[in-house]
Amino acid sequence: MPRNAVIGVDIGTSSSKGVLVGLDGTLIRSAVREHTPARPGPGRFEMDAAVWWREFTEIARELTAPGDATVIAVGVSGMGPCVLLTDEHDTPVRPAILYGVDTRSVRQIERIETRLGAGEIVRRGGSALTTQAAGPKIAWIAEEEPELYARARRLYMPSSWLVARLTGAYVLDHHSASQCTPLYDTHTCQWYAPWAAEVAPGIDLPPLRWSGEAAGTVTAEAARETGLPAGIPVTTGTIDAWAEALSVGAQHTGDLMLMYGTTMFLVHTVPEPLTSPSLWGTVGALPGTRNLAGGMATSGAVTNWLRDLFADGDHAGLTRLAAKSGPGANGLLMLPYFSGERTPVMDPDARGVIAGLTLSHTRGDLYRAALEATAFGVRHNIEVIEAAGGDIRRVVAVGGGTQGSLWTQIVSDVTGRPQELRTTTIGASYGGALLAAQLVGDASVDDWNPVRETVTPHAAHTARYDELYALYRRLYPATSDLVHTLAGMQER
């Protein structure tokens, strides 16, 4: 007899991932569909929403094809904050603009700050206005593509788009809304109508629910397309990093989640709202929770870039070479700002820098320098989080980059902090499955996903990394003027 199970699906930057999970947390099977965002110009990243739904339907059918499980609930998540505008019939007016990797909205940020006040935006919205925020991206469409914007009536993100296609419901979770700065008031946990009218005129913003609440049930039409049973509940969902945090139980006060993926994300849970001009203050995925968050524009994206440069390279082989390189990468130092940088630098015109290169350096040295660069970026973010009033008591790591031991070990060595690894580190799709299971039962993350190991810092590497970190912090201000000039040349 088929066992009852839940499905979790996450729409990520470079792939969509789905898991079929038993009600006890056992992973039955997983499925992946890889994709590549369109890059229609410098600093621009877009995706066609049709890709999200097509990949969801393919994943759902693949996961359920063997017929050994009966799906009784669905959980969704996705990258964000993204901006997908549709007309009143839910037909997209243009491809979705992605989160902070897309840096096109600089002029809109300046204009909105002038009109609303930079300090007031932080006070009400929790975060400074940056290219991560959804609000300026909406304003960019209104100003640069007015004929398309004239048709726009609704705002979606990847998770809410899946919800709409599955259930017909037009909703968004509170956390995703809180990254729509300046449209959302983090104190009242509601859309702020005066600023919404200013920044997103004519858009009927979606009703808000918490991530674990049911958005609706699978319609008969969606059931035909996906192979899922009609009538089963679907979660409201959330942004991928917050689903990742839920998947490893990192939602308690003092927790810091590190998400190792194409980008690096940090989510620190705090007891009361905190703000910083260099971080994002948001509401959490669960009712009553607050976060201070950071995100690096690239991390795994840099190692993927290096892998692709080396025709015969693969991550496992390059990791072995990097391990042989040793701490400090034989005198190489890298800034990982290959797509600009989000927190805490907040500079869309930042670029990658590799300092200290000689003819003696190897592929392993370069790969090691990339891993160390992301670790230095994590340390920088942690220092800013604590300077803003954060109190980090536990670090929990999740994501594809935790599969090998070297990257997590380097991060612990650089930051001086242990990292807890849970048994399952799949990430957001597993977190979505957990929320789905909680819709239909009393699933607990500690029962589903117990601690597997703790990565502890190597004291012998501390002095070396302290020295290199000091140089890392000097490298950006020393090169930023030159790099900004080069970034301008790239745009031309």
Automatic annotation (TrEMBL):
Transmembrane segments: none annotated. It comes from the Bacteria. The keyword Cell membrane does not apply. SUPFAM superfamilies: Actin-like ATPase domain. GO terms for molecular function: kinase activity; phosphotransferase activity, alcohol group as acceptor. One of its GO terms (biological process) is D-xylose metabolic process. Pfam families: FGGY_C, FGGY_N. Keywords: Carbohydrate metabolism, Kinase, Transferase, Xylose metabolism. Residues 257-437 form the Carbohydrate kinase FGGY C-terminal domain. Residues 6-245 form the Carbohydrate kinase FGGY N-terminal domain. Belongs to the FGGY kinase family. This is FGGY-family carbohydrate kinase. The lineage of its organism: Bacteria, Bacillati, Actinomycetota, Actinomycetes, Kitasatosporales.
